[in-house]
Amino acid sequence: MKAHDGMYIGGQWRPAAGRERIEVRNPADEQILAEVPAGTAEDVDAAVRAARAALPGWAATAPAERAALIGALRDVLTARKKEIAETVTAELGSPLGFSEAVHVGSPIAVASSYAELAASYAFEERIGNSTVLLEPVGVVGAITPWNYPLHQVVAKVAPALAAGCTLVLKPAEDTPLTAQLFAEAVHEAGIPAGVFNLVTGTGPVAGQALAAHDGVDLVSFTGSTAVGRQIGATAGAAVKRVALELGGKSANVILPGADLPKAVAAGVGHVMNNSGQSCNALTRMLVHRDQYEEAVSLAAAAVAKYPTGDPREPGTRLGPVVNAKQHERVRGYIARGIEEGARLVAGGPDAPHAQGYFVAPTVFADVTPEMTIAQEEIFGPVLSILSYEDEEDALRIANGTVYGLGGAVWAADQETAAAFARRMDTGQVDINGGRFNVRAPFGGYKQSGVGRELGPHGLSEYLQTKSLQF
Ligand code: NAP
Ligand code: MG
């Protein structure tokens, strides 16, 4: 696959400072797709300097002009949709249809929303005798994961651009090719040199250097809670703004009276999509004990519709997980579930193919709230079904993890579901199958993070206020 042997800094592709390379692998066949340079602190420093140099000009650019350039970026992404989807499928392993619809479709919608918001947002407000100016925070260090390689990038870059910030992006080492395509799109859209910069590399080297750089005013990170905690500590010590979008262990609460077959099928689909590698995946299904066995059989039937296969084949709905490490880790969790006494209804720890990082779509019943598989983020196609006695019990189980990112409630009517959702300690709840909304704030309660992405709430993360008293 095509790859740039350099970093996108100051509006051009420049050779990397060091000689280290990252091999990008196709998780479906384990073959090497391409190599990209592994950035060092020197590359990060050059990129931050470029972003800082571009900041005054971009911050002073009229919001309408910034909006037009974000719109142009959206148009380039749209024109190159097929190529980007093929790249996501090659380096992440997501089925091609899902790559087109979600991995590319969603970031296009996000870019669109920020093209509109940049043009209409009130960057000034009046409070009594004060005028409050909403000014860009400055230079943003963005560190993104591999699970939604373009969406996670656009969810940071588009609001930062709308706000008038400049950026340096360090994408996940597993999915740098999508990030390089994004940098090409930024260039093609005519976004001024230095406003967006890309340094590919590993977390502990390039990511760490970016998070710790004095020239970065805000670190926006999406990934694991373990790394997020470190980044928060580094940013805190430097009195730098930080946004952390971390893991989840989201509950799908099916209340008595809900459409059980529909709720179970949608819940299974939510976990199998993207091979379970979504931070808000509804990995814990909570069912009333009177409907429990029926839900378990429905889930077993639903999961049979997700056989693993080549993600480039049109019929495939479940691709591999991203890399060898996740392959081991996810199957380790499945083995742990069996050891701890959960009942395996579908799937299991054995790899379904000799080649590729495939995990069998797995469903566990008789999962109790304290089990490891009910507490820790697995990040694979693994669903746990738990039973509850009554609503209070369901709420206690739903809220009983360190996380609070996503969630869902199904009930006979929206009012009953929404009343339950109000009592959940989580940042997002889908009511009776409510659709994802790219303008609604996305982010976590508890250890799922700090700050919000998307829509106007996401834009405000990149702004700081100045009050003028008259
Ligand atoms: P991760 O290490 O947290 O990766 C996220 C990003 O942070 C990547 O760009 C990574 O670079 C970078 N990074 C790693 N260590 C860093 C450091 N010390 N300083 C600065 N940046 C650093 O996540 P992972 O290892 O890919 O996945 C592990 C687990 O995290 C998964 O099993 C899953 O549970 C969770 N996860 C959650 C999300 C989410 O959206 N909430 C996304 C991905 C993973 P590299 O690519 O070089 O590691
Ligand atoms: Mg990592």
Describe this protein's structure.
- The chain has helices at residues 41-59, 63-79, 81-92, 96-120, 151-163, 176-189, 203-212, 225-237, 260-272, 292-303, 324-339, 372-375, 391-398, 414-421, 455-460, and strands spanning 7-9, 12-14, 21-25, 32-37, 124-127, 130-136, 139-143, 166-170, 196-198, 218-222, 241-245, 251-254, 284-288, 343-346, 362-365, 382-388, 407-410, 430-431, 449-450, 463-469.
- By secondary structure, the chain is α/β, with parallel strands linked by helices.
- The strands form 5 sheets. A 7-stranded mixed β-sheet has the order 14-15-16-13-12-17-18, with helices on both faces. A 6-stranded mixed β-sheet has the order 9-8-7-10-11-19, sandwiched between helices. It has a 3-stranded antiparallel β-sheet with strand order 5-6-20, with no helix packed on it.
- Helix 3 packs across helix 4.
- The radius of gyration is 22 Å and the shape is globular.
- Residues 143-147, 170, 172-174, 202-204, 207-208, 211, 222-224, 227, 230-231, 246-247, 279, 326, 377, 379 line the site of NADP nicotinamide-adenine-dinucleotide phosphate.
Assign an overall shape: globular
Spans with pLDDT under 50 lasting ≥5 residues? none
For the record, give the distance between the C-alpha atoms at the N and C termini, rounded to a whole number: 59 Å
Task: Provide a count of the helices.
Answer: 15
| CATH topology (level 3) name of the largest domain | Aldehyde Dehydrogenase, Chain A, domain 1
- Ligand names: NADP nicotinamide-adenine-dinucleotide phosphate, magnesium ion
CATH architectural group of the largest domain = 3-Layer(aba) Sandwich
Strand order within the widest beta sheet: 14-15-16-13-12-17-18
> Number of DSSP strands?
20
Overall pLDDT metric: 98
Helix content: 40-55%
Q: Tell me about the largest β-sheet.
A: 7 strands, mixed
Structural class: alpha/beta
CATH superfamily of the largest domain: Aldehyde Dehydrogenase, Chain A, domain 1
What's the CATH class of the largest domain, please? Alpha Beta
Percent range for β-strand residues:
15-25%
